[in-house]
Write a structure and sequence with these properties.
It contains no helices and 15 strands. Strands 1, 3, 4, 6, 11, 12, 13 and 15 form an eight-stranded antiparallel sheet that branches. The chain starts with 145 loop residues before the first strand and ends with a strand. With 355 residues, it is mainly β. The chain has strands at 146-148, 158-159, 171-175, 181-185, 193-198, 205-216, 225-235, 244-253, 258-267, 270-278, 288-297, 306-313, 319-325, 332-338, 340-351.
Length: 355
């Protein structure tokens, strides 16, 4: 017969069909129909987004794994989501990273000022790919800038001069105790030049770097002046100690125990036209950001005219030097020490254009 709810009534079980109470346990109970499936934890899924060992953002939940620039880093954690910049092994990091020299959240490959931190997207008024904050000609379109954060040893594009510039092996990648990674000129050998040059001649220059002097040689029979900085306008000249170039950097007068910011025209190791301004404070261990500039005065063709030379130390207080040099500004850029060991954090180079 049907019961009150329309189901056939079932007979009561006989005593032999009833299980003893002691045999009924929690594990014997049937599963609840609405209970969620058991959770299986994946030790490789650290962000709990359902993707394990191959997660392209292992620390950020991104179930869709979107990677529009296909560099192996998901858009959700990519510091250049539209420009490919795959992670690279970098000194001081346990795993490959996307490099971000100024630590502003924008990777070097897409940062329009990779050495100048900014909290928002860089403004680029002239649309030349150089942000206004670091563009020496913000209203004029310049050729693409060159930036090197010195994470890796000098490659074949960097060479020493044929005459009297030391060895490329003198320059090594190092990570300082303060976390900075860069190139260190490590040889301290008295009055000797150590110089390294980037391949390719530029016509006019804007060269930005950060230098930290680490040690200074004592006076010897050759000289008591010691210096370190960027070089630009390098033109090789046949013979010993004849190469011509400009320098912008810091100088120590060892006998006088005085420090300077310096700009000069140099022939080999000899200061031909030198201009300095006294610098206050400790030199060894101080971060000094230096900017060298050389523009053409007269003439329009390569290797013509004369040079308006400038050197700025973004120091405390800032120091600016200018002078007029006979001869053109054209040549290679580079780094140089003389009687010093020094650390260079980066180089940022813009080829200036004539308005």
């Amino acid at each position: 017969m049907l019961g009150a709810c329309g189901f056939a009534a079932q007979p009561s079980p006989s005593p032999q069909q009833q299980a003893p109470d002691a045999a009924v346990t929690l594990t014997d109970a049937p599963p609840t129909p609405d209970a969620p499936p058991p959770v299986t934890e994946d030790p490789d899924d650290t962000d709990n987004d359902g993707v394990g060992a191959n997660d392209n953002c292992p620390d950020v939940r991104n179930t869709d794994q979107a990677d529009q620039d296909r560099d192996g880093v998901g858009d959700a954690c990519d510091n250049c989501p539209t420009v490919s910049n795959p992670p690279r092994q970098t000194l001081g990091s346990s795993r490959p990273i996307q490099r971000d020299h100024d630590n502003d959240g924008q990777g070097d490959e897409c940062d329009l000022c990779p050495h100048v931190a900014s909290t928002s997207r860089d403004v680029d008024t002239d649309g030349d790919g150089i942000g206004d904050a670091c563009d020496p000609q913000a209203a004029l379109r310049n050729p693409p800038a060159y930036f090197n954060g010195f994470y890796d040893p000098p490659d074949a594009s960097w060479q020493v001069p044929a005459e009297g510039g030391g060895l490329r092996a003198d320059w090594e990648v190092t990570r300082r105790a303060d976390g900075l990674i860069g190139w260190r000129q490590r040889v301290l050998d008295g009055s000797k030049r150590h110089q390294i040059l980037l391949a390719g001649e530029k016509q006019q220059h804007f060269v930005d770097s950060l230098v930290i002097v680490e040690s200074i040689a004592e006076t010897d029979a050759a000289s008591g002046l010691r210096n370190a900085g960027v070089t630009y306008g390098f033109l090789p000249v046949a013979g010993v100690n004849n190469d011509l170039y400009f320098i912008c950097g810091v100088e120590r007068d060892v006998p006088g125990s005085k420090d300077f910011v310096q700009t000069a025209l140099v022939a080999g190791d000899v200061l031909n036209v030198d201009k300095t301004a006294a610098r206050v404070g400790t030199l060894i261990g101080s971060r000094v950001r230096i900017v060298g500039q050389a523009t053409r005065d007269g003439g329009s063709a390569p290797r013509t005219g004369n040079t308006d030379l400038a050197c700025l130390a973004r120091d405390v207080p800032p120091i600016s030097l200018t002078q007029d040099i006979t001869g053109p500004p054209d040549g290679q850029i580079g780094l140089r020490t003389f009687g010093m060991t020094a650390f260079f954090d980066y180089v940022f180079d813009v080829e200036l254009v004539t308005p």
